[in-house]
């Protein structure tokens, strides 16, 4: 049974449960949604990612969450916290937030609503001193949201990841300290 971690006016953020990999594969794994994330994945890749996320949640008390739309009960995205684990990153083990929203729900403010709930979770219950978010320069929607949330660009933490296509190979980072978040929320 999934745990509800946060609720917003329009969304429920809950832990991953059995069957979510198939739902994610069907609803979030589109060329548009996955364009800046290395392209659509195979179902077994999503299942493996979910298994890792569930294990990390059990160990650390945080992980990625499924975003459900209250009005319909449908899966509209995922959002959460994990440790930076890319071996090419300069800030291994920092708390990293990330999100994705299915393309038929874009431009409704769902990503911002979910990320604000995850930031509150990160800074109040998880106790993260700061969080980072990683993206590519071409993922304009993501880094604009990072800036809107008060995150600061950290060019000193950028790195190249050859696992991605050339246009997305440079991973750019933004950071937000707990105190900055508290000030931004006032």
UniProtKB/TrEMBL annotation:
A Pfam family per the record: Acetyltransf_3
Family annotation (PROSITE patterns): GNAT
Molecular functions per Gene Ontology: acyltransferase activity, transferring groups other than amino-acyl groups
This protein's record includes keyword Transferase: yes
Keywords noted in UniProt: Transferase
Domain of life: Bacteria
Ranges annotated as spanning the membrane: none
Domain N-acetyltransferase: 11-179
Protein name: GNAT family N-acetyltransferase
